[in-house]
Amino acid sequence: MEKIALGVCSSISIYKACEMIRIFQDKKFQVQVILTQNASRMISPLLFSALSGHKVLVDPFQEEASDTIAHVALAKEISLFCVAPATANIIGKLASGVADDFLSTLYMAVECPVLIAPAMNEAMYLHRQTQQNIHKLKAFGVKFVEPEKGYLACRDEGWGRLAAPEKIVEAGIKLMKKSRSLKGKTVIVTAGPTQESLDPVRFLTNSSSGKMGYELAEEALRRGAEVILISGPTHIFPPRKAAVKKVQTAREMEKEILKHFANSDIVIMAAAVSDLRFAESTPHKIKKETLSEKIEIVPTQDILQKLGRKKEGRILVGFSAETENVVENAQKKMRKKNLDLIVANNVLDEGIGFGSDFNQVSLISPGGKIVHSERKSKLEISQMILDKVEDIVGKKS
Ligand SMILES: Cc1cc2nc3c(=O)[nH]c(=O)nc-3n(C[C@H](O)[C@H](O)[C@H](O)COP(=O)(O)O)c2cc1C
Questions:
Q1: 95 backbone dihedrals φ, ψ, rounded to 5°
Q2: 202 in the same domain as 129
Q3: Least C-beta-crowded within 10 Å: which of 1, 31, 150, 251?
């Protein structure tokens, strides 16, 4: 029987957690309840132990938790960590990495999907601090079931009422399903710029930060894929579970892709590979006085086109950074390079694309279908792209 962890905080809606245990059990899940210390003062842990059939966990130093390092052991066993009801306090703690009780320590240890259902008074929910904490957690890939508007325990009317238990359980099950949607698939993601050296201190590059590719790698991992992240120089901390291959030049990137191409199912080319390189590159710094007036620059190999020719059953996704006629130019590129999907954006639009945390893209399919996104975080754009990739996988199989 699959196991989930239910983190319960000291909200007035704590009693609804009992119903959630029942619903998860009806759907054939084992439920391990974790209470915050304050929650255990509101309702006796005994009730939750009796309902769930497992000793409730509150303190990582308590006896029940001491046979193994319980938060680490539990993190490996569960398919979902659902925190419901979640107080303003726990949301703040999780957003800032505080791990001082079982619930918050478990959060730091899990790699399964995390679902949070907040419940609080409207002023607390809409407080900028709470909203900022929620935003921060969403950027880490945590999912939320938003609270509802209605009559609150504080006798106010407003936002903050815990979503219905059925709705929370349903969102949890959907999330678990999503976490396996690319299971068995190997995804190559390229990210970042390339640097084409003239000598050890001078090179040609572009302003790609690598954020889009790294978000795609994280999201593919969250969906259960094996991920090979081939990255040009970036300052981003790579996802722990990806096989990360660091490269510098377009040539090195091509070599690394080709090494893994045969074993891949999906290739997402989010890197901004330099189109140009110096004809010659020297191992020693060229003295200023001896820099020739003319330095020859030549085109780099078109990796995407090469992959398009040999892709066979693989799904190949390209990006198209345009400054004019965005859709038309991207469509031409998609046909020329035999892609299954192209993600186009206008790099002249301010506040999106290169270096930004946001993007606004058009997803263009060979059949002519175009989906235009709003300006969204790169995490949300990566989810849109992988949803589309999953559609293509579904149609091909
Ligand atoms: C009766 C009562 C009801 C409460 N309800 C809520 C609530 O619904 N949401 C919330 O964020 N805090 C609520 N609080 C405040 C939290 O219990 C308080 O911030 C506590 O420190 C949170 O601890 P925990 O997050 O470790 O459970 C309530 C407090 C009391 C005494």
A1: -65, -25
A2: no
A3: 1
Pick the residue whose CA is nearest to atom 10 on ligand 1. 87
- How far is ligand 1, taken at its centre, from the CA of residue 87, in Å? 6
Instruction: State if residue 363 touches ligand 1 by the CB under 6 angstroms criterion.
Output: no
The answer to whether residues 245 and 155 belong to one domain is no
Is 9 tagged catalytic? no
Phi, psi of 317, deg, nearest 5: -115, 130
CA of 8 to the centre of ligand 1 (A): 11
Kindly report the pTM of this predicted structure. 0.89
Is the pLDDT confidence value at 341 over 90?
A: yes
Do 74 and 217 belong together in one domain?
Answer: no
129-154 as b/e: b if 16+ CB within 10 A: ebeebbeebbeebbbbbebeeeebee
Distance from the alpha carbon of residue 95 to the mean position of ligand 1, in angstroms: 17
Residue 365 has pLDDT above 90, yes or no: yes
Is the distance from the beta carbon of residue 130 to the nearest atom of ligand 1 less than 6 Å? no
CB 326 within 8 A of CB 346: yes
Same domain? 287 vs 360: yes
Q: How confident is the model at residue 154 (pLDDT cuts 50, 70, 90)?
A: low
Domain that holds residue 60: 2-178
Same domain, 251 and 392: yes
Query: Is 212's C-beta closer than 6 angstroms to any atom of ligand 1?
Result: no
The residue from 178, 210, 227 where one domain ends is: 178
Residue 124 CB–ligand 1 contact under 6 Å? yes
**Could you tell me which of 245, 247, 246, 240 has the C-alpha nearest to residue 221?**
240
